[in-house]
Design goal:
Elements lengths: L15 H17 L4 H18 L5 H12 L2 H15 L1
């Protein structure tokens, strides 16, 4: 996807450590408002679909995640989302 076809990454996605911390914060915020871990994972897959289509990868790690997301089946995307949740949660 060319630069004109996707949005530039947001500030919190500038490096892997910050990206992970942002996701960890989002998980905690969801839990704070009563979301279950399964609801958070489901929402993460929806967000992942949007990001893969619309946002340019800002780091090599994000580029790898996008490539994995692009080749994954819907079920594999749920697994990838669950693994990311496990990694940062």
């Amino acid at each position: 996807m060319g630069k004109r076809e996707c949005l530039e990454g947001m500030d919190f996605m500038k490096d892997w450590k910050t990206w992970r911390a942002s996701l960890r914060d989002a998980i905690q915020e969801g839990r704070k408002y009563g979301m279950t871990d399964e609801e958070i994972k489901t929402l993460a897959v929806e967000v992942g679909d949007y990001l893969a289509k619309k946002v340019c990868a800002g780091t090599p790690e994000e580029a790898l995640l996008k490539e994995l997301w692009d080749v994954a089946t819907p079920e594999e995307r749920k697994t990838l989302g669950a693994l990311i949740f496990k990694l940062v949660g």
